[in-house]
């Protein structure tokens, strides 16, 4: 499950690069934009603002589902669908980005997705 918290080598991730504001796209359409990046307990993730798509809430996405980063287009592509992101454990408060149990639950959810959803 550790790989779910690390960028895939082929994702195009550059260490230290700020992805805030980038559009986030799933296999089947736009999900939202990166609000911020975090790395608590070695569990690197993106907090994605979904706008009105998921009733104005944010979702937490482990970086292991990032399939590609296009810095010029300011776009982050995920290897999962919008429905899979929407079905992830609900993100309610900022403090959850530092809650180890919540992060483990999110990582477990994404880790259990079908292989094509996690592997670009």
From TrEMBL:
One of its GO terms (biological process) is photosynthesis, light reaction. InterPro entries: Bac_photo_RC_H_C, PRC_barrel-like_sf. Signal peptide: none annotated. Gene3D superfamilies: Photosynthetic Reaction Center, subunit H, domain 2. GO terms for cellular component: plasma membrane light-harvesting complex. This is PRC domain containing protein. The lineage of its organism: Bacteria, Bacillati, Actinomycetota, Actinomycetes, Kitasatosporales.
């Amino acid at each position: 499950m550790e790989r779910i918290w690390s960028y895939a080598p082929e994702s195009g991730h550059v260490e230290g690069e700020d992805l805030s504001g980038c559009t986030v796209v799933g296999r089947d359409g736009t999900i939202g934009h990166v609000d911020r990046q975090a790395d608590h307990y070695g569990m690197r993730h993106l907090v994605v603002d979904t706008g009105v798509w998921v009733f104005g809430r944010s979702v937490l996405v482990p970086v292991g589902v990032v399939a590609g980063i296009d810095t010029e287009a300011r776009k982050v592509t995920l290897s999962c669908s919008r429905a899979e992101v929407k079905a992830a454990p609900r993100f309610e408060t900022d403090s959850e980005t530092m809650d180890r149990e919540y992060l483990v639950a999110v990582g477990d959810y994404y880790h259990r997705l079908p292989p094509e959803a996690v592997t670009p």
